[in-house]
Structure prediction request, 281 residues.
Amino acid sequence: MKSTLLTAVYDQREALLRRVALLDDTDWDLPCAVAGPAATRPVREIVAHLLLADALILSGAVGARWQRTGRLQMPGSWDPAPLRAMAQLPVSALVTLLAQRGEKVARLIARAPLASWRLPVAGPAGRRPAAQLWADRVVHEWLHEHDIAGCSADQAPVAMRPATVSLATDAVLRTVADAVLPTVSLDHGVVRLVVRGDASSRTWGVDFARRRYGPRVTAAPDAQLRLTPQDLVLIVNGRGDRVPNSIDVTGDPDLAGRLLEALAAPAATASSLCRDVHAVG
Prediction:
């Protein structure tokens, strides 16, 4: 777990740095959709937001960092004063800070004793193991890289690195039970959710009758959804409009559609760092 997480942390920051290196200085003022067509931020504010999150992680108590990071994530209520001050820095300074703070965060994670990764700390979704919060940070940064790529026609598609695929899939699936099941008013039906990447696969079931969810739900499904990890992360984080027509639905289309609607609903994105991006970015 530790090696996978550290690889994902390094890979994702390097990917973000490569992404912004392709931008002209004028591109940093382009508006980017961060949570659907109604919410936009210029590239420099997205980068400033990530830098502020890094700064919070690197200072103070772990719980306080993550509680404040969660507060920073609502698009209409990102702390405006520090965000504005950070965003006004020259492009070269922003890029340098991205590299420096990314390295510092990675070293902080690497130095943390493995036992501490299992300790619950306060965060946007309540008290959760520290390792889950670090994983959420990687997913959050990947989403913002996707936002930046979408604001320029010259940008290459955003691939999810192998280490990030595993972390992202597990981070999203872990939180669906509390966020999605209570919002679906169904008392029947089983939907199988198959999330398949190039090198990994997760199969989870949703039993609406028994209100059960997870890999141990093995009842015969009435419907099945097959999608990629990237598609799942985008849908659950308010970016479903970016998902191509690659979701394979078999069985009862209405039942599968109800689950997809619940995954994409704001209620599914309100309780964790990763999914708060539906409301923020």
Observations:
- The CA atoms of residues 117 and 131 lie 5 Å apart.
- The two ends are 26 Å apart (CA to CA).
- The chain is about 50% helix and 15% strand.
